[in-house]
Design brief:
The structure is a single chain. With about 290 residues, this protein is of the alpha/beta class. It contains eleven helices and twelve strands. Helix content is about 40%, strand content about 20%. It is elongated, with a radius of gyration of 24 Å.
Amino acid sequence: MLEINEEIIRLVDKAIEEDLVGGIDVTSVATIPEGMESVAKFVAKAEGVIAGIEIAGLVMRRSGVAGFEALRSDGDSLKRGDLIATASGDTRSILLSERTALNFMTHLSGIATLTSRWVSAVAGTKAKIRDTRKTTPGLRTLEKYAVRLGGGVNHRFTLSEQALIKDNHIAASGSLTNAFASIRREFPDIEVEVEVDNLDQLREALGCGATLIMLDNMDLEMTIQAVKITAGQARLESSGGLSLENARAYAMSGVDFLAVGALTHSAPALDISLDISDSNSPSKGSK
């Protein structure tokens, strides 16, 4: 369940405001009588995993739509034609909020759907599909939530949660060993992950006592060698050069994680529509 906090409310309000900068919804004001009420349905146009129902409902409510009923739950699998939710109330408000609600829902559902495909690709192995910080600015909390709905696990949310020694840190520190020792002195209790490009660096990281190591852009043969060298001394994460086609082979090598930036930066939106199914014109004499 997604916690609707002040951060998410501010995000939704900002998204709604983007459509109203400088004025009103001129199309709806011109074509929809004031006071008209309608019922609209969110319908899946493709198979996938739904995410963002609560966000869509929040968009509707913050836009003045009186009724929103979720008929499915985030994380449910959908077939084409499945009814997801309904919105009821002022027609102008429904149309005002339509695109923003769909933008959130289709984007997050796309992430959950793509993640579920990766998870299915490695089913039966110990490897978990993990996201990265390659998220849309401002949407990290929601995008990582969608990854979890698809069966994936989250990498760090912020730079303060976990140390990750990358090639630039190694270059600036003089060596992997220096970088690792510096973090241990400064932050003795924090988890440290080390990114390595080759097997010599892997051995150096193990010698430092690293217990989480990222294998950066290693081909399958080198990954298999890395698993043998590590021999359970550390958890291993494959990153770079991964695809749905080769994911299972990498997972079967014995690594613990597959890091997939594409989950959040390249997931195609899931096709969902919002269709008005019933409308009531305002009674005579109403303004």
